[in-house]
Design a protein that fits this description.
Three copies of one chain form a homotrimer. By secondary structure, the first copy, chain A, is an alpha+beta fold. Chain A folds into two domains: 9-121, Rieske [2Fe-2S] iron-sulphur domain (Rieske Iron-sulfur Protein, 3-layer Sandwich); 126-332, Naphthalene 1,2-dioxygenase Alpha Subunit, Chain A, domain 1 (Alpha-Beta Complex), CATH 3.90.380. Chain A has five helices and 17 strands. The first copy, chain A, has helices at 88-93, 146-154, 159-162, 273-301, 319-339; strands spanning 9-14, 23-27, 30-36, 42-46, 60-62, 65-67, 74-75, 98-99, 101-104, 107-111, 133-142, 176-182, 185-196, 210-220, 224-233, 242-254, 257-267. The longest helix of chain A is centred in the last third of the chain and has 29 residues, at 273-301. The radius of gyration of chain A is 22 Å and the shape is globular. In chain A, 44% of the residues are buried. The model of chain A has no long low-confidence stretch (mean pLDDT 94). Chain A binds chain B through residues 151, 155, 157-158, 160-162, 173, 293-294, 297-298, 301-302, 310-317, and chain B through 31, 48, 50-55, 58-59, 67-73, 85-86, 90, 93-94.
Chain lengths: 346, 346, 346
């Protein structure tokens, strides 16, 4: 699957990454440069000077404009060349593609397609800006196709194997697994009663040795997976326990590399900085040293990015990932047919 | 020559490399995982989980079984899936290929082909387990086609150039070279009378300044080269001198990378550990820093792995290597014809 | 443009690089080995042994001959095999290609084509051996097509952007740009009056705050760009100022990598060694950290080495580079037609 769904909102960066210094980032195999204008709003432009092709992100920002670092060609925040060396004819060719962006929920969302963007379609991540929570924003680059990351987030049965030393006590998958699809997306859930408390709940469910535990994943096309997970003393209501809300944002860099962002909202327990630092580090170990290591080995073991060509066996726990892959393939096909002006076959 | 002879025994590892922790190794461009069962016998399985393709060598051993490190799929030592999540239909597809292996002479021998293996065909390396000798087992990975390593071992005229600082005094090739082929394999021999003593004989032929020197190489298809080499005081019988028996095991990893193992049996002189350590280090310098550096430069200078396409000039000393290449090409062709059900042209 | 002009003189090395130890260097995608014979003259031979293809530069020099480091094959300074193992028939195939070379102006010039070389065509760089000057010779390898380096040297408008911190005060391009072509080559010139003094002139035009500044570039096909640059107190004659003569030598290694040599003649001011060292270091920063970084980013941003396929917009300052590209393309086409025995279309 080397094609991407282009007419959709992707997370391009966390808000804190974008400043008055240009940031170059490849998204869906296109080079994009981001910067803030003097009013603080974010601009996203094609990161390639039409004169000598170098990334504009090697240049600098001057007010609301970006200036190429090679010969100083100057573009405004809409990508229009405003250089005195360009005459009117040149100026038309010298236009940089301008990408619609929206800053919301602590993230920069980008629309890579040619169709008119609808900001109402940006997935709701309101919990990431809830002042009643403690937030954690982090990210990495994974050398694997983005769908492998989404598969991973929709099949949490890997917790008992990949994350045994970090965020699982090994009996997460003793429970009940369900998967279904509705208008909100593809869902997979785990509910496990009376299991050994996993390490991340120990500080919050003091004295408990066994807990009821859950994790609910929801994928929204193309690249968001919410995970609501928690634990509670056995037979107590979920609300009495400890739980976190996670937004995993998966954005293709190329066919075989993926920008992977995670935003995590935890209960605000007034924890000291070292606890926050430890929580961040434990997730980095889980999502980078453990998950990404496995996904990158998986990608290297594949002949290409064509998952089905590898003839995988399909287990019941793959139900969510298979639904997501089918849904996305259908959306991409529909988008390509729209681009060709063809009616989508029902 | 990107094809391999598959119905043959190759050295996959030294015995000491295989334990209850899985070892992944690519052989003839196939991923294989090795481990010992609880009774100490060695298992070799396809190193790829049929579910998500990751190497099983990233997982762990549980008794006689191997458990995938990603989602915990479980296989017995024959490669049969014994996971509760696999129903009968899935189980047939989830079977890992199981490779015949035999542990003998301190090495793990593997049979990569589909024909029935015959253990009588494992080359005799009894000298590697002779308690009357001092043994040295070592190995490296060479970034060159495996036939370049075999060429190297069958044309020892390189000793006076490549190994001048380590295991040659520069007059090894002043002597007589012979090459021939018989049922035992392809042979090349050097016999040089009255030459300067090379450094490795000095501690054993104390006081000698000049020696008679010999080295006899025998290649057995596809990947074993025995070398019997030694020196003796001039005009004395070989038996009165110092000599070593070497088994060089050359196993393709890919078309352009090679597992190279060497087992060396020296006279047991009750030498102290530092002498053994020095002998090991000197051979590492000769076989890695000197030989492999040259073979890797040779591979980089070639357009592909097709040796003859480079139009080499052929010297008399190439006689052994040329015979080995022709013999192996014939064996590979015959094997491919058998696989196609075609009679081998006589 | 993956083709090269072959019947032309290229700088292969600075004189000081060639000694009695062999130097291997890839030029126009051919491996070449250089060494000095006992009389001090330089030999350039094909850097590939016809026996086993390894670079002869891994071997050693014995008198006027070169000896392969693998099996000791021996060649004289004309590339003729003089090994006792080669019979007459072998010897013809075992001949190494011998390249015409000329040592002049502190450089080794090589002729890579099959046509008869004419030493009168070696570009005049007499200023590089003028005892009245202080000389600086240096070089690097740039991971970009060689024409990108020549473009760079013919469009010095990049000084105000790429070199703002090293050799420009930012107003170099406020002046007048001209470009034209004549029998001497392609010329581009800048003349800027009354501008802020750039850092490299400060020690020489003591007390001056503003200067008149110039830089005159001349490209000679295929790979030489002379740059005569300097500054003088405002409205004073050029001769009263500070000026340097530069010879930039651009030689393809492969289609996407380039040997870049620079020889710089400055007025001999009897400067102490630390000043010379600083001048060398400042140019390394400008030509490597600044220029090469940009050219390599440019190459990575291109799909191939086909510049025009990227559909660049062309600014007035590109006039010199465009002329050079057209001229070189014409010369290459003519050379290829001569090789085919076809008359060049006028």
């Amino acid at each position: 699957m080397d094609a991407y769904l282009r007419n959709a909102w992707y997370v391009a960066a966390w808000s804190g990454e974008i400043s008055h210094t240009p940031l170059g980032r490849r998204l869906l195999d296109e080079p994009v440069v981001f910067y803030r204008r003097s009013d603080g709003t974010v601009t996203a432009l094609q990161d390639r000077c039409p004169h000598r092709f170098v990334p504009l992100s090697l240049g600098k920002i001057d007010g609301d404009n970006i200036v190429c670092g090679y010969h100083g060609l100057r573009f405004d925040g809409n990508g229009t060349c405003i250089d005195h060396r360009c005459n009117d004819m040149l100026r038309a060719d010298a236009k940089l593609r301008h990408y619609p962006v929206e800053e919301r929920y602590g993230a920069i969302w980008i629309w890579m397609g040619q169709e008119t963007p609808n900001k109402d379609l940006i997935p709701d991540c309101g919990f990431l800006v809830d002042p009643a929570r403690t937030m954690l924003f982090d990210q990495t680059l994974v050398k694997a196709n983005y769908m492998l990351e989404i598969d991973n987030l929709l099949d949490l049965s890997h917790l008992d194997y990949v994350h045994l030393s970090t965020i699982s006590a090994g009996s997460f998958t003793d429970g009940v697994f369900k998967t279904w699809q509705d208008d909100a997306g593809v869902h997979t859930t785990w509910w496990t009663e009376d299991c050994v408390i996993p390490p991340q709940f120990v500080p919050y469910l003091v004295g408990a040795e066994r807990v009821d535990q859950w994790a609910d994943s929801t994928w929204k096309a193309p690249g968001i997976v919410y995970i609501h997970s928690g634990g509670t003393r056995c037979k107590q209501p979920r609300e009495s326990g400890y739980w976190i809300e996670q937004c995993h944002c998966v954005t293709p860099e190329t066919a075989t590399t993926t920008h992977y962002f995670w935003g995590i909202a935890r209960p605000n327990m007034g924890e000291p900085p070292e606890v926050s630092a430890f929580a961040r580090q434990r997730l980095r170990q889980a999502f980078i040293s453990e998950d990404a290591t496995m996904l990158e080995a998986q990608q290297r073991a594949m002949k290409s990015t064509d998952f089905w060509a590898e003839r995988p066996i399909v287990l019941p726990e793959d139900g969510g990932a298979v639904r997501a892959r089918r849904t996305l393939a259908k959306l991409i096909r529909a988008e390509q047919e729209r681009a060709l002006g063809v009616a989508v076959a029902s």
